[in-house]
Predict the structure.
Amino acid sequence: MADGDVHTYFEDSQWKNRIEGGVRASNTSRHRVDAVVAGRQTAKKRHVAHVVHDRDGGIESERTFRPLDR
């Protein structure tokens, strides 16, 4: 995982998104699906990976939106 990747994770009874390398969550939601959608949109816009964690902190899924090198 690289600086700038977007992580969706559960903390303090909320789902949050944080950009790797940052200190604070960029957004929060009570609902997982809303946080995942917001995280995916941010990752697409920034052309980075989106990593979704489960409630225990393990990686559930990872998808990259980086451009392909040709």
